[in-house]
Amino acid sequence: MHVAHLSLADFRSYARVEVPLDPGVSAFVGPNGQGKTNLVEAIGYVSTLGSHRVATDAPLIRLGAERAVVRSSVVDRARTTLVELEITAGKANRARINRSDNVRPKDVLGLLRTVLFAPEDLSLVKGDPGERRRFLDELLTARAPRLAGVRQDYERVLKQRNALLKTAAMARRAGGGKGADLSTLEVWDGHLARAGAELTAFRVRLVDALQPLVAQAYEQLAPGGGPTLLEYRSSFEGALPASREEAYQQLLEALQAVRKQETERGLTLVGPHRDELGLKLGELPAKGYASHGESWSYALALRLASYELLRADGGEPVLILDDVFAELDARRRDQLAELVAGGEQVLVTAAVPDDVPKALRGARYAVAGGAVDRL
Ligand SMILES: Nc1ncnc2c1ncn2[C@@H]1O[C@H](COP(=O)(O)OP(=O)(O)OP(=O)(O)O)[C@@H](O)[C@H]1O
Ligand SMILES: [Mg+2]
To answer: What is the extent of the structural domain holding 303?
Structure first.
């Protein structure tokens, strides 16, 4: 698939901009701070309803404006879909698909599939476990939009269960050890285990599927530098579940086993929100040990593996490479260019024209002063 047109109003630094796009490679080039990342961030937003840079929508709205509008026409196997999103700070977003109002924003998920690599991705390797969980969950959602609902269910149940545990913990302290009524807790255990098991089982399978692809991508980017190893680590003891049913039973048992600690601490202590995706390079964990260049290659390999996985599912995603080339030496640059040059649509940004490798010849756009001009 590819984006044939992007139109922004009051998004980030752009008052208004219209960007016609072709399949193949497009490079956005311009000095720092001119709005290159803002453009690809908008495309990423249409794909995931989130930004790769910020957790809330407010920064996406141009300073002084009330709402931002992102329109994009997405071509997937000769079918064009017009996706429009209106982003209003502190309020629910509104969506239109092919000019129909009768849709929810989450219906947009799945219409445009993208894989975006940006400097922020270094935190996939160096950051907290939450970054890696989000990586897995976003990829799951890209492959099966229905799982966005499972994620939401899990978050909601977790919040309510935590609230119940917190109240119980406070009552226990106030009552000198005598706890509050926890009869409803078992019901919440069931809800948590059901949504949690589904998420866990999908994640475990995803990690298996990613394993060889990450190893291959890393080897291509940094020959002889591996091997890489991904390890899904559960928040409780025991073998990884082979099925959703097994995950459900395990999680229920684990909840029972930590019941006492949970009611003391007022917090849900096991479940996918506490699982970790371990990344190893050779014998060592990447986090805390890998060099800057190794971490960068690892993060990029995770994204390239995601790209290959989505590609294999059918309906080629749009690949977005924000500012990657400046970080790579000439050899790695050419290797990466060769890897991605055949993609249906590849969007790259660079501050310096010479940073874009020759193999990625395609359309060039100059980005400066709030305008985007095709050269
Ligand atoms: N909500 C907003 N309203 C107005 N301007 C904004 C908003 N958000 C970001 N900007 C401006 O957009 C600019 C950053 O744009 P962007 O990150 O796209 O730059 P870039 O071209 O990718 O630069 P670099 O080469 O450094 O990565 C900054 O000058 C910032 O002040
Ligand atoms: Mg940028």
So the answer is: 117-314
Residues 101 and 191 in one domain: no
Ligand 1 nearest atom to the CA of residue 62, by list position: 3
pLDDT above 80: residue 176: no
Name the pairing type of β-strands 67-76 and 2-11: antiparallel
Closest residue CA from atom 8 of ligand 1: 12
What is the C-alpha separation between 94 and 174, in angstroms, rounded?
A: 45
Distance of CA 262 to the CA centre of its chain: 30
- Same-domain pairing of 49 and 190: no
Measured in degrees and rounded to the nearest 5, phi and psi for residue 369 equal: 60, 35
Say if ligand 1 is within 6 A of residue 38 CB: yes
pLDDT at 178 over 70: no
Query: pTM for the full model?
Result: 0.93
Overall domain count for the chain: 2
**Closest alpha carbon to 144 in 264, 290, 282, 314:** 314
- In DSSP terms, 5 is beta-bridged to 20, 73
Residues 160 and 18 in one domain: no
Is residue 302's pLDDT more than 80?
yes
